[in-house]
């Protein structure tokens, strides 16, 4: 690890840099934020509210990503950066408190949408300032920071600010425009001066936010059952929800994360930066969004099973919540498929499983909720098992090819050695970009 300090006490990182305790502390603020996004959908499970919750999640996600990138090149637990993170944490907590009122501001309190927008603008400004201070001699990066301020920070902020004076669908559509402008600008600038110093840190950092989202899907079980007697159907629903979360965990951490890290480690310069941005900043958003949607479906199901006075066990889930249960899993699978395609390892099994789950919500409205949960769990279990077999078969075939990894002694690997018995190991040759 590089321990160079500049005049502001910033400590640069190196390729061996890993996640610091300060970053783990920083992520705690986003635990509540993700919980609030799920609650925002659960309070009014309609298509409009789903779109609005997606906009809020996209804005929060980008704030988190900004400091994940910064923490990859500058240590988060040293110098001025730790102070910046604490300030941002306080702002994220304030933003989380505004989420329930962000589209329907309650009378008698602060203007929740305006507070949300002002905090968001402060996050983005602090991120650029910290980057500027930490790289005083990097002319290319500083030029990119200026472009980012003029294209990806100021215009979206002004659009969000204008939208905060409206309510309902109009506000949601205006804020959606701000998100599209923001993401489009960053996509264009994704390889212009930014850099990834440590692929290991980057992969680990995003793995932690996936864990946070999975934790929210488990917490959703308790939220759905809160205030009702504990019954056997509730226990069955809880076990089923945990099984789904476990399969999502296995698919990501045993069959994807190290392969992505390995691919990014194999390249450098602008190629590495561009690949990291697409795999993590852009494609991890629908992945996390899929987990949040699944949490909505689980919470709604458990609530329905627990509330025996108003619902019967033979009753199906209703409305958006019915689609969210399989649809969230489907979105997760499709996001994993897209990531694997970007790193050169497309999975037909996951693509088919994601498509099937995404359209399964149409049929879920006609079967009992617990049966729907069981069907989603079984489908996901089968998809993970078939994907494991798919990877093993391809790996064996590549080992047996003349000049393949099995003949050349294997490619260099950081993630597989780190995690032990990984399902997709370093023997899989890394395709070139």
Task: Summarize the structure in words.
The protein is an all-alpha fold. It folds into two domains: 1-197, no CATH class; 198-433, I/LWEQ domain. Helices cover 73% and strands 0% of the residues. It contains 16 helices and no strands. It has helices at residues 21-43, 47-73, 79-98, 112-134, 139-163, 168-188, 199-225, 232-255, 257-265, 269-282, 284-306, 319-342, 348-364, 369-400, 405-408, 415-419. Helix 7 (199-225) packs antiparallel against helix 9 (257-265). The chain starts with 20 loop residues before the first helix and ends in a 14-residue tail after the last helix.
Overview in brief:
The protein has 433 residues and is mostly helical. The chain has 16 helices and no strands.
Beta fraction:
under 5%
Mean pLDDT: 87
Largest sheet: none
How many separate structural domains? 2
SSE ordering: HHHHHHHHHHHHHHHH
- Separation of the first and last Cα atoms: 27 Å
Computed over alpha carbons, the radius of gyration is: 22 Å
Question: Architecture of the largest domain in CATH?
Answer: Up-down Bundle
Name of the level-1 CATH class of the largest domain: Mainly Alpha
Percent of residues in helical segments?
Answer: over 70%
**Unreliable parts:** 1-7, 405-422, 425-433
How would you sum up the global shape?
globular
Under CATH, the topology of the largest domain is which? Answer: I/LWEQ domain
The number of helices is 16
Can you tag this structure with a few keywords?
I/LWEQ domain, mainly alpha, disordered N terminus, 433 residues, 16 helices, 2 domains
């Amino acid at each position: 690890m590089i321990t160079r300090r500049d005049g502001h006490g910033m400590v640069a990182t190196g390729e061996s840099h890993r996640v610091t305790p300060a970053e783990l502390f920083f992520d705690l603020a986003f635990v509540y934020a993700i919980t609030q996004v799920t609650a925002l959908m659960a309070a009014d499970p309609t298509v409009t509210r789903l779109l609005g919750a997606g906009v809020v999640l996209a804005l929060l996600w980008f704030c988190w990503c900004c400091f994940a990138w910064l923490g990859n090149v500058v240590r988060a637990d040293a110098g001025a950066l730790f102070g910046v993170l604490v300030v941002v944490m306080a702002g994220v907590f304030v933003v989380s408190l505004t989420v329930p009122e962000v589209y329907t501001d309650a009378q008698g309190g602060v203007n929740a949408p305006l507070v949300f927008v002002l905090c968001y603008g402060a996050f983005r400004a602090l991120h650029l300032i910290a980057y500027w201070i930490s790289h005083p001699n990097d002319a290319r990066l500083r030029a990119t920071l200026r472009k980012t301020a003029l294209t990806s920070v100021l215009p979206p902020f002004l659009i969000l600010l204008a939208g905060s004076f409206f309510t309902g669908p109009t506000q949601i559509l205006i804020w959606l425009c701000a998100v599209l402008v923001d993401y489009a600008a960053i996509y264009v600038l994704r390889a212009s001066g930014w850099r990834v110093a440590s692929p290991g840190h980057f992969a680990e950092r995003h793995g932690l936010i996936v864990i946070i989202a999975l934790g929210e899907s488990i917490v959703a079980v308790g939220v759905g059952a809160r205030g009702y007697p504990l019954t056997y159907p509730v226990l069955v629903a809880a076990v089923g929800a945990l099984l789904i979360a476990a399969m999502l965990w296995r698919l990501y951490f045993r069959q994807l994360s190290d392969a992505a890290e390995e691919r990014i480690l194999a390249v450098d310069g602008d190629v590495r930066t561009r690949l990291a941005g697409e795999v993590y900043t852009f494609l991890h958003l629908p992945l996390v969004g899929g987990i949040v949607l699944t949490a909505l479906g689980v919470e709604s199901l458990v609530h329905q099973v627990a509330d025996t006075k108003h619902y019967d066990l033979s009753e199906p889930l209703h409305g958006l919540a019915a689609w969210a249960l399989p649809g969230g899993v489907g979105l997760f699978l499709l996001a994993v498929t897209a990531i694997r395609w970007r790193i050169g390892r497309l999975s037909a099994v996951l693509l088919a499983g994601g498509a099937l789950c995404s359209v399964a919500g149409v049929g879920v409205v006609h079967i009992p909720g617990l049966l729907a949960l069981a069907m989603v769990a079984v489908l996901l279990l089968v998809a993970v098992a078939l994907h494991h077999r798919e990877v093993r078969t391809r790996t064996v075939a590549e080992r047996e090819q003349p000049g393949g990894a099995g003949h050349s002694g294997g490619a260099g690997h950081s993630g597989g050695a780190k995690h032990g018995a990984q399902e997709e190991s370093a023997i899989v040759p890394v395709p070139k970009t």
